[in-house]
Specification:
Strand order of the largest sheet: 1-2-3-4
Strand content: 15-25%
Distance between the termini: 82 Å
Helix content: 40-55%
Number of domains: 1
Structural class: alpha+beta
Shape: globular
Radius of gyration: 23 Å
Number of strands: 4
Length: 168
């Protein structure tokens, strides 16, 4: 009888332990990083500038922009940081030689017509503009993208943001 109680207790402990583990780690792997539209755009963007630049995807804005001033306990700094810490930009273009961030790109689908997305887009546009970092927006295209036009617009945006000269 005692062994039955011990075995029952162990079974309960194992079940509760597994349930507790699942509650602490309620995660599963995503199948894909990109939506279909993002993947198509990424492939075109890679063909357009991938040889001369790095194309990074789904980058946290707080890793691209920083808040002015010292990191401190002030409410203003933390409020500004919080506004960018949980937002991501679809693509970031970096210099292949040194990793310098050159340009951000947002791919706009139908969700960008919603009010909440428009407010977010206005904020992101303003943040990038204030930081002096070009941000390009492209509407989703079903049939693909003009690779030469895409390359031209990205390189023009980068060159316009540089103080003197352009991209090699």
């Amino acid at each position: 009888m005692t062994e039955l109680w011990i075995a029952g207790g162990l079974l309960v402990a194992v079940v509760l332990g597994v349930a507790g583990w699942r509650m602490r780690y309620p995660y599963k792997a995503q199948k894909r990083l990109f939506t279909n539209a993002e993947w198509r755009f990424y492939q075109h963007l890679e063909r357009a500038i991938g040889g001369s630049h790095l194309v990074m995807a789904k980058v946290r804005i707080a890793d691209v922009l920083t808040v002015h001033g010292r990191r401190s306990q002030t409410r203003g700094w933390w409020r500004a940081f919080t506004r960018i810490s949980s937002k991501h930009i679809d693509f970031i273009i970096c210099d292949r030689d040194n990793g310098t961030i050159l340009c951000g790109i947002e791919l706009d689908d139908r969700s960008h017509f919603r009010g909440d997305r428009r407010r977010r887009d206005r904020f992101v546009n303003g943040a990038f503009e204030k930081a002096g970092l070009p941000l390009l927006r492209y509407p989703v295209q079903r049939r693909g993208y003009d690779i030469h036009g895409l390359r031209r617009s990205v390189l023009q945006a980068i060159a316009a943001a540089r103080p003197q000269g352009g991209i090699a």
